[in-house]
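One such given next:
>
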Amino acid sequence: MNHFDNNTPWRYERNTVRQLLAAGADDNFQGSNIFDATRTLSNLMVNTPGESLFLLHTGHSMHVERPRFLAGEIVKFLFTALPELKTTDISFLTPLLLSEPALKTTDVSFLAPLLLNESG
């Protein structure tokens, strides 16, 4: 949604669904300033529950650069929303991880080995 006038809320203002927002400091190159923009957006999202991760020495591909850390943070985020689950029970992720995504942007299969690996 575009912000047409003072009566039209920005999309982030209408978001009340729990979010995990993450950005890497090395992804703050001139012209995009993704890291700074993400930090600004995080501060503006006062109606949105959830968490933000702002990582130093990490760029745009944090799932490749810091896979175990990111997988751990994702699991923590999911279990915070579902505290009744044991921390070793990730069965609720199985359909998501094993299904064929309709769009490539929904493919989270790279998380399966990280979530299933108990070596830490």
Summary: DSSP finds six helices and two strands in the chain. Residues 1-65 form one domain. Helices lie at 11-14, 34-44, 62-65, 67-81, 94-98, 111-116. The mean pLDDT is 77.
